[in-house]
Write a structure and sequence with these properties.
Elements lengths: L17 E5 L3 E4 L2 E10 L2 E2 L3 E9 L6 H7 L2 E2 L1 E3 L4 E7 L21 E10 L13 E12 L2 E2 L7 E4 L2 E2 L2 E5 L2 E3 L2 E3 L2 E5 L2 E8 L2 E5 L2 E8 L2 E5 L2 E8 L2 E5 L2 E6 L4 E5 L4 E2 L2 E9 L3 E8 L2 E6 L2 E8 L6 E11 L4 E10 L1 H87 L1
Parallel strand pairs: 2-10, 10-12, 11-13, 12-15, 13-16, 14-17, 15-18, 16-18, 17-19, 18-20, 19-21, 20-22, 21-23, 22-24, 26-32
Antiparallel strand pairs: 1-3, 3-4, 3-8, 5-6, 5-9, 7-8, 9-10, 25-27, 27-30, 28-29, 28-31, 31-32
Length: about 425
């Protein structure tokens, strides 16, 4: 059939529709990923048209024209949220998922692009510039989601919302929102997040753990990092590991002790505040000297029973979950110095007493000397007086002698005269 007539071409010019794509930033192998596209034209939402999302590895951007024919994810309008929605399954080591034609395992851990293109019912197209693509990453972990697992997958798996009851080892795996029951597990080089353990024994080796809850379980940490841990009737044993935000909170310990050179009996005040504290022990240089649970205790220490020196006083509080906290202070015992100081004080006191006695003796000697000098002076005066008296007596005696001699002579003369008269 032929149509006769005149024909001419037309060029229709219209503005682009604006597209805002939101999706996950990271996905696992075999995961269902949802794409949300908010498409507007002139500020009003586009509700009618034909749109699709092209999903491709970033390294194949130069092959976009070919891939856009082979790999398209249809979108449909969801009036409840006012956006265009679609989903696809990422490729994995066991399936190509929605991306048929890509070699399995070739793009593990590689970035992928999502570019939404199409035209509205009013013929408003979207941009086809590759710079408008949303980028996400497919992590090299095979996803297992919402399953009950009794046999472990030993490496590079991602478990999400699973119930797991196993005895075995998980290596290089990811766990999110899982529940382990009656299990005996070792995790090696893995990430465990928002997971619950019940009646289980768990060992973590070089594991990053966050938001874990343990019921009636025992967990061992080796060179691991764990944050936001809740223990209910459970025990945790860390070794060279970092623990943060553990419930019950570790006991708080404060020590009030005297300072300086300590002698005699001293009192140390220890306060322990915490939940489920099983035992608190006070050590002096590693030797236990006192124990209690929690609360405040005053501990008396007789420093004279120990050699002089510096001692560390350590308070160690153990919780029922196996975790503990400690605090330490240092005490300096100096009884010998105190005794020496006392002896020196006594010696000084004795020296002062001797000095006082010496001064007293000196004063007494001075008094004696003064008295002696006075007595000597008096004696000298008496002797002088006596000498004077003696001299006087001598003079008187001489006079008497002379008188006697004169009288004798007179007597002799008289005798001679008498003889002559006869």
């Amino acid at each position: 059939t032929y149509v006769n007539g005149s024909f001419y071409g037309q060029v229709y010019v219209s503005p682009y529709s604006s597209v805002q794509v939101s999706s996950t930033k990271y996905a696992y192998e075999g995961q269902t990923v949802y794409v949300y596209a908010n498409i507007t034209s002139g500020g009003s939402p586009v509700k009618y048209g034909m749109y699709s999302a092209v999903v491709y590895p970033t390294v194949l951007s130069s092959e976009y024209s070919l891939l856009s024919i082979e790999i398209e994810v249809p979108l449909w309008y969801n009036p409840a949220i006012g956006e265009w929605v679609g989903n696809f399954t990422t490729p994995s080591v066991v399936s190509e998922g929605s991306l048929q034609g890509l070699f399995l395992g070739l793009y593990d851990g590689a970035p992928f692009n999502i570019l939404v293109t199409g035209v509205s019912a009013m013929s408003n197209p979207t941009t086809t510039s590759l710079s408008a693509a949303h980028v996400f990453y497919v992590m090299p972990y095979l996803l297992t989601e919402g399953k009950t697992i009794t046999d472990p997958l030993t490496y590079y798996s991602a478990f999400v919302n699973d119930t797991i009851e196993v005895n075995g080892t998980y290596s290089n795996d990811v766990f999110v929102n899982d529940t382990f029951i009656d299990s005996n597990i070792r995790f090696i080089d893995s990430n465990v997040t928002s997971t619950i353990f019940k009646n289980s024994d768990i060992s973590l080796y070089q594991v990053n753990a966050y938001n874990l809850t343990f019921y009636n379980s025992t967990v061992y940490l080796f060179s691991s990092s764990a944050k936001d841990i809740k223990l209910i009737n459970s025990v945790i044993v860390p070794s060279q590991s970092l623990l943060q935000d553990v419930y019950p909170t570790l006991p708080s310990i404060s020590i009030i002790a005297p300072s300086g050179n300590l002698t005699g009996t001293i009192n140390v005040k220890v306060s322990v505040i915490g939940q489920e504290v099983q035992k608190t022990t006070v050590y002096l240089n590693g030797m236990p000297i006192f124990s209690f649970t929690n609360g405040t205790q005053v501990i008396s220490i007789n420093t004279a029973k120990y050699p002089d020196g510096t001692y560390n006083l350590t308070v160690f509080s153990l919780q029922s979950d196996g975790l503990h906290s400690s605090n330490v202070t240092y005490l300096n015992f100096e009884n010998s110095i105190s005794s020496l100081s006392s002896n020196l004080s006594n010696v000084s006191s004795n020296v002062s007493s001797l000095s006082s006695k010496e001064s007293s003796i000196s004063r007494e000697v001075s008094n004696v000397n003064a008295t002696a000098n006075s007595d000597v002076s008096s004696l000298k005066g008496n002797l002088t007086s006596i000498n004077n008296k003696v001299d006087s007596v001598k003079s008187y005696a001489i006079d008497l002698a002379i008188v006697a001699i004169v009288l004798a002579i007179v007597g002799i003369a008289l005798a001679i005269l008498a003889i002559r008269r006869r």
